[in-house]
Write a structure and sequence with these properties.
single chain; 96 residues; mainly alpha; 11% strand
C-alpha cells in the first residue's frame, strides 16, 4: 500500500506473498517485528500527509483483488485497516 500511495504501479511484493523466514532465532524475529513497526509508521505518516483530493484517485484501471487495484486510495486505506484489524483479532485469539 505504501508503494501504491507513493506512485509505484501495483505489483506483487518484492519478497513474494509468503516469503520464507531467514531464521527462527529471537534476534531474527525481533528484527522482523522492528521492520514491521518501522514500515507501519512510514505508512501512517504517508496517509496522514495525503491531500484530500488524492483519496478519490483510483489505483490501477481494473479491479484485480490480489493486487488491490480498481479501488480508490480511500478504499485501499480502509481495506488495509480492516485487513490489519482482522489479523490482530487472529493474533489475540492465538495468544489466549
Amino acid at each position: 500500500v505504501f508503494s501504491r500511495l507513493n506512485g509505484k504501479p501495483p505489483s506483487e511484493p518484492a519478497a513474494g506473498e509468503w516469503p520464507i523466514p531467514a531464521g527462527d532465532s529471537e534476534q531474527y524475529w525481533n528484527s522482523v517485528k522492528q521492520s514491521v513497526y518501522e514500515n507501519a509508521n512510514k505508512l501512517i505518516s504517508s496517509i496522514e500527509n495525503l491531500p484530500d483530493e488524492k483519496l478519490e484517485e483510483k489505483i490501477g484501471e481494473e479491479r484485480y483483488a490480489s493486487l488491490g487495484t480498481g479501488l480508490t486510495v480511500e478504499g485501499t486505506v480502509i481495506g488495509l485497516i480492516q485487513h490489519n484489524a482482522y489479523h490482530a483479532g487472529q493474533i489475540s485469539l492465538l495468544k489466549k
